Amino acid sequence: MTIDLVAPLIAGLGTTELIIILAVVVLLFGAAKLPELARNSGRALRIFKSETKGLMSDDTTPEQREIEARDERDASRKVAPLKPALGALIVDTTGMPVQDVVAKVLAVVRKSG
């Protein structure tokens, strides 16, 4: 019985390659600069993520933003707020084709009826 002790691979690199890369990085930047280099890399990654998230959230059209604002106003108004009735069955049909929506609603009606 043999047990293979395989070093975890990072991007297809073995332990020896990673040690060589680390040694080259230490030689190029110096040991004192490594924490600053890591900190700046992390900061750049956070900025990149926040900027791409901002781009994704800007994909809404003016009509979608208007509908969302109207829904928020309707849900928070004092007189007759737009809320589900007590005991209402909520069926989430987000992203479903019409045929699946009809089948799901019929199944809920049959189950509750």
Walk me through this protein's architecture:
This protein is mainly alpha-helical. It is 61% helix and 0% strand. The protein has four helices and no strands. It has helices at 15-29, 34-57, 62-76, 98-112. The relative contact order is 0.04. The model is unreliable at 1-5 (pLDDT under 50).
Please supply descriptive tags for the structure shown above.
113 residues, disordered N terminus, 4 helices, mainly alpha, elongated
Anisotropy-based shape: elongated
How many strands appear in the DSSP assignment? Answer: 0
* Number of helical segments with 4 or more residues: 4
- Note the gap between the termini: 62 Å
What does the average pLDDT come to? 79
Q: Give the uncertain stretches in residue-range form.
A: 1-5
Strand content: under 5%
**Helices and strands, in N-to-C order?**
HHHH
Structural class by sheet pairing and helices: mainly alpha
Largest sheet: none
Q: Mind telling me the C-alpha Rg?
A: 28 Å
Set down the secondary structure blueprint.
Layout (H helix, E strand, L loop, with lengths): L14 H15 L4 H24 L4 H15 L21 H15 L1
Task: Offer a concise description of the structure.
By secondary structure, the protein is mainly α. Helix content is 61%, strand content 0%. It is built from 4 helices and no strands.
